Amino acid sequence: MISFSWQVQSSRDNVHLYDFHIVYSFSYKVPVLYFQGLQAGGQLLTLDEIKKDLPPHSLQLLNESKWTFITREEHPHLSRPWFTLHPCGTSDWMKLLLHKLGDKDRSLQYLPAWLSVAGQAVGLKIPLKLYCSS
Description:
With 134 residues, this protein is α+β, with helices and mostly antiparallel strands. It has four helices and five strands; from the N terminus they run βββααββαα. The chain has helices at 47-53, 56-64, 90-98, 103-121; strands spanning 2-11, 14-25, 30-39, 70-74, 81-85. It has a five-stranded antiparallel sheet, with helices on one face. Strand 1 (2-11) and strand 2 form a beta hairpin. The longest helix has 19 residues, at 103-121. It is globular, with a radius of gyration of 15 Å.
């Protein structure tokens, strides 16, 4: 499991903190993005509150795309409900995204490529350096 946090200035007086976990799904055989939003006082955000924090292009992506939608399910390691981008179409769109890469490059680029698409749905900006070879 990979975890990281993101802070969003929701309004002038309101800061929301988001926790993200990337967990491998053995059922779908793909990574899954789990997340939850918290108010400054620690209270969990509802999906409607989370959607207010998303940039317009993310909301549009969630509303129009057949590949990305948010559900709520039990976190596999924490046994508590978290929001997640449902992984049902992930394998298909990842094949489309990486089809021209060789096996070695596909392995190296899989997670950054996946996060660049999955992250957009929840407003994450992925640094370009993730794609650059050392």
